[in-house]
Amino acid sequence: xxxxxxxxxxxxxxxxxxxxxxxxxxxVITIGISMGYAPEGPLQNRLFMLHKxxxxxILFLMLLRIAYRLIAGAPAPDPTxxxxxxxxxxxxxxxxxxxxxxxxxxxxxxxxxxxAPVPFFGLFELPVIVGKNEPLSxxxxxxxRYLGWAVAAIVALHIAAALQHYFIRRDGVLQRMLPKxxxxx
Length: 185
What we know:
By secondary structure, the chain is mainly alpha-helical. It has helices at residues 12-37, 42-72, 83-114, 134-169; strands spanning 3-6, 74-75, 118-120, 124-126.
């Protein structure tokens, strides 16, 4: 990871991409769980469409986020963090980037292999990127599901750490990613 190119908190672009991805990931997790419990029919179909649409949006936003991070870098770690905290933070962030991107890609390839369209909020459909292969799609959907639970667990850890920095340590770590209107740097 590139550090030290920004002073203080993250740029407005980095913050915007972070919060857009965060909202989408929390939405797609909630929808993904809900669609498994919804009865077959219009509601379940709508949830599947939303899940695929948010997944496509996450893929696009993550690619933008990674490109921006490579170009603009990130601020140096907060100086109050111990070495092990910097290492843990870097590992969790790297794992989140990797898993969220992998999950979106695997979902997209899985739907292409299943032969199902990947809609984007009813506006258009993403192109099919692999030929129909239902055995492959089944394996990819299982992997997608397991990655979903892993992402949910790591997101919970990430949120818990951010809240711990804000409410217990009061060290300003969370404020580096908050918009200025919410007390960010």
